[in-house]
Amino acid sequence: MKIFIILGFSAAIAFTAVFFSFLQIGKDTIFEQIEDNCIAKAIHKGSSLVDYAARNEIKRTIQGRGIATPTLLLAFSKFPEQESRDISQAAERMEMSIQVLKQKVCQKRKRSLHPTDHLSADLLTMIANISGCLPYMLPPKCPNNCLANKYRLITGACNNREHPRWGASNTALARWLPAAYEDGLSQPRGWDPSVRYNGFQLPSVREVTRKIIHAPNEAVTEDNLYSDILMVWGQYIDHDIAFTPQSTSRTTFLSGMKCQMTCEKQNPCFPIKVTTNDTLSAGMDCLPFYRSSPACGTGDHAVLFGNISVLNTRQQINGLTSFLDASTVYGSTPAAENKLRNLTSKEGLLRVNLKYYDNHREYLPFTDQIPSPCAQDPSASGAERLECFLAGDSRSSEVTSLAAMHTLWLREHNRLARALRRINGHWSAQTLYQEARKIVGALHQIITLRDYIPKIIGPDAFNLYIGLYTGYDPTVNPTLSNVFATAAFRFGHATIQPIIKRLNAQYLDDPELPNLHLHEVFFSPWRLIKGGGLDPLIRGLLAHPAKLQVQDQLLNEELTEKLFVLYNNGSLDLSSLNLQRGRDHGLPGYNEWREFCGLPKLETHTDLNTVITNHNVTEKIMELYHNPNNIDVWLGGLLEDFLPGARTGPLFACIIGKQMKALRDGDRFWWENDNVFTEAQKNELRKHSLSRVICDNTGISEVPTDVFQLGKFPQDFKHCNNIPGMNLEAWQEFYQEDERCGTPKSVENGDIVYCSESGQSTVTYTCHYGFQLQGEEQLTCTSKGWNFEAPVCIGI
Predict the structure, then answer these.
(1) What is the mean pLDDT of residues 297-317?
(2) Average pLDDT over residues 240-258
(3) CA-to-CA distance for 578 and 635, rounded, in angstroms?
(4) What does the mean pLDDT of the chain come to?
(5) Which of 44, 118, 214, 239 does the annotation list as catalytic?
(6) Kind of pairing, strands 357-358 and 545-547?
(7) Contact in structure between 121 and 30 (CB atoms under 8 Å)
(8) Domain tally for the chain?
C-alpha cells in the first residue's frame, strides 16, 4: 500500500506542471504572479522538507538499561495511529508547500508575501491533492445497511447522515471562537517576543508555573468529598474523546535541527523559555515543545470548495472520535480495532495478555512495539521485559491508575460478551462483540453524565447547560471543541495526588506494597503486574481522597518538576505544556471566553479579585500578565472560585457543560435515544454503576455505592452482593430460523450480523481489517430464498 502512495505522490508532482495549464487563474489573487514551471518544484520542496524531517523523527528506542527520556515518553504517549500520522504528515506537507510558494523564489515579482496574502482555490485544491490532504477533506461514503443503523462505526463517521464528518476521528477540532494567532493565521501568541499584548509581553509559561501553579507535595490539600477515582475517571474519559497528535517530526522542517537542541522557534518546534537556574533547564535556555499537527487545509487564507470568505486559520486534529463511545477500549480506527480484537474467538472477545494474569483475571496485552519505552523492574533480569500495554488509547500506560481503569473495562467487555453468548447461543462473534461494545459504550455515557459531570460543574450549571435529555438533535454538532480539549477539561490536572496508595482487603496500608510517588509509576506496567495487581490499587483509589484544587496549590511537584521522569534522566512540566499548548492551538484569552459564556469581563485587578478570593494569587497574576485580557484561558479558568456543589468555577462549568450537552444531543447512538436500546434494556442499564463494574471484574468484595463519593471503611462501604446491576436477560433474543432461507453461508476472514428490516430477515456481511467484501454486503430473505449469493472477503 505504501509503495502505491509514494508512486502516486511522485506522479502527481511530475504531472503538476501539465495539469496546471488547465486551471483557471483568479485575477484577484497572487496566483497569477507565480510562474507555472516553478509550482511543481515548490510543492516538491515543501513536501520533501516535511518527509525528510519525518524520516529523521526520534526513534522510540531505549537508552541505556531501558530508560527513556521524558521527551521520548511524551512523544510515545502522543504517538498516533498510522491513519492519524498519515493525515498529520499530509497536512504538514500542504502547509509547508504553501509557505514555499509564498517565498519570492516562485514569483515573477520578487517579493515575500504577507502571511495573510492568499492563494487561489484552484491552487490550494491542487496542493491539497498532491500533499495527500484532499481525501481527508472530502466527506466519507456512508454505508447504507442495517448494521450501520444498529452499531456506530469505529471511526465515529456517519453518525450524522447530513454531516458525516461531525465527531469522526482524525478530523479538526471545533472552534467556538475565532483563533487567536499572532500573525492571524498560524503563529502562536508569544512566538515573536517583540509583539506586545495590551502593551506587555506575554510571560514565559514556565515562569507562570513556578510563580503561580507549582505546589510542593507536602502542601497538598485533600478533598473532603470525593475519592481519588474521581480524578482517574476524568482522565480516562478525556482519553476517550480527545487526542491531539503532535507533529510527525522532532526536527525543524527548514533547518533539520532537533527541537531538543535548539531554542529557535521554527515549526514544529515552539520551545519553552526557562532561566539557567531552573531545575529543568539542563544547561539549556529552553525546554523542548512540539507543536500539534495542523489539520488539512488550515493555516492559510483559503478559498477552498467555494468558501470564499473563510479565514482558514490553523486548526488541530482530534485523533479520536468525539463521542463518548469507549474508544479507550476499542480504538478509533479500523486498524486499531483489529489489533485489539481476538478474531479467533467465537465469543466476540478482546485480546488479553497471554503471559500474565491477575489471580486468574485478565490483563491488557502488551504493545507489539518491542522494545517499548516503558520502565522495567530494576530487580528483573535483562531478558524479562514488560512492555507498555496495548489498549484503545496509546496513553494507557502513562500511570498505573489509568492502566487499571483500561484493564477494568477490557475485563468488563469480555465478561459481557461471554454472558451474552450464554443467553444467545445463535449470535455470531461479530454480533456478540458489537452488542458488548454497545453496552460498554452506554455505561461510559451513564457513569459520565449521571455520576461524574454533576459533581464537577455542580447542579445549577448542569441544569443550565445540559438539562434533561429530549432526544437526538441532528442540528447539534458533537465535534469536540478546541477549548474543551486544550483547556477546560484539563482542570483535572489540579486534582491529581502526588502519592499512589495500595491497600489490603481491610482497606489498610499493606507493608508489602508501600505508597509510591507519582513519578515512580509513570509508564511502569511492571508496577501493576508485579505489585499486587488491580485490587490493592483500586482500593487505594476508592478510600484515598482526591487532591483539592486550591488556588495557591494547583499542580503538585510530581507534575511540575518530575513529569515522565524515569530515574534521573530529566523531566518535563505538565502545567507549562498545558499553557504552551493553549497558545499553540490559538486559544483566545481568558476574558474572551468569559464573554462567550455570558460572564462579566474582568478589566482590572479589582475585578479579578471578585472571582479569585486568594488575593496573593491575583497579585502574582497581575505581576506576570499585567492585564486580565492577557491571561491564558487554562490558568484563568483553573483559578476561579468553585460554584456551589462543584469542583470548577463558572467558566469551566460553562465550557464543560456546553460540550457535554453537544456530545449527548448530537449523538445518534446515545443510549437514551429511541431505538438504540429497548425500554427493558434501558431500565437494566440504569441499575448499573462503576461500583458494579469493579465488583464484577476484581477480587474486591466491598465498595461504596457511589465510588466517586469519599467514604470511610467499613461504614460507608457495601458488600458487592448488595450493589445492584443489570440483568442481561433483557438482551435475550428468541431466534427462529427462517424456514424459507435457512442459515446464511458463513464467510472466511469476516462475519455476519442478523438484522430485521420492514419485517424481513436480513443479514449483513463484514470483513476483518485488511480484507474487502466482494459481492453484496446485505442479503434479504425472500419467498425464493436469499436474494443474493453470499459474498467473500478477499485480501487487500
Answers:
(1) 57
(2) 89
(3) 9
(4) 88
(5) 239
(6) unpaired
(7) no
(8) 3
Max distance between CA atoms of the chain, in angstroms, equals: 83
Q: Does residue 271 have a cis peptide bond before it, meaning omega lies within 30 degrees of 0?
A: no
CA 687 to CA 707: how far, in whole Å?
15
Q: What's the pTM? A: 0.91
Cβ neighbors of 504 (< 8 A, separation 6 or more) are 510, 513, 536, 539
Q: What are phi and psi of 338, to 5 degrees?
A: -60, -40
CA distance 208 to 205: 5
CA distance 62 to 70: 12
Who has greater pLDDT, 14 or 257? 257
Cell, residue 46: 515543501
The answer to whether residues 396 and 406 touch, using CB atoms and an 8 Å cutoff, is yes
d(CA 749, CA 458): 49
For residues 731-750, give the mean pLDDT: 85
The H-or-E segment that residue 339 falls in is helix 334-340
Phi, psi of 694 (to 5 degrees): -65, -45
If you average pLDDT over residues 563-578, what whole number do you get?
76
The answer to whether residues 616 and 552 touch, using CB atoms and an 8 Å cutoff, is yes
Q: Looking at the predicted structure, is the pLDDT value of residue 569 above 60?
A: no
Instruction: Specify the CATH number for the domain of residue 585.
Output: 1.10.640.10
Q: Are 228 and 540 in contact (CB under 8 A)?
A: yes
Q: How confident is the model at residue 45 (pLDDT cuts 50, 70, 90)?
A: confident
| Residue 268 preceded by cis peptide, ω within 30 | yes
783 and 695 within one domain: no
Same domain as 303, residue 360 = no
Q: In terms of domains, do 705 and 562 share one?
A: yes
Is residue 426 annotated as a catalytic residue, yes or no?
no
Q: Which residues of 557-586 are buried (b: 16+ CB within 10 A; e: fewer)?
A: bbbbbbbbbbeebebbbbbbbbbbbbbbbb
626 marked among binding-site residues = no
Point out the domain boundary residue: 676, 694, 727.
727
Query: Are 104 and 163 part of one and the same domain?
Result: no
- CATH code for the domain in which residue 755 is found: 2.10.70.10
Q: What Cα–Cα distance (Å) separates residue 279 from each residue in 274, 560, 570, 610? A: 9, 10, 9, 34
Q: Can you give the residue range of the structural domain that contains 302?
A: 2-155+296-309
Same domain, 668 and 587: yes
- Please, how many CA atoms are within 13 Å of residue 370, restricted to the half-sphere of its CB? 8
Say if 184 falls within a structural domain: no
Angstrom distance (rounded) from CA 611 to CA 608: 6
Identify the three-state secondary structure at position 643.
coil
Decide if 175 is inside a domain. Answer: no
Query: Is 250 inside any structural domain?
Result: no
Peptide bond into 371 cis (omega under 30): yes
pLDDT the model gives residue 784: 87
What confidence score (pLDDT) does residue 103 get?
A: 66
Grid coordinates representing 110 are 520578487
Q: Classify the C-alpha dihedral 364-370-372-374 as positive or negative.
A: positive
Per-residue pLDDT, 387: 93
Q: Are residues 715 and 756 in the same domain?
A: no
Q: Is residue 140 part of a domain?
A: yes
Q: Average pLDDT of 4-8?
A: 38
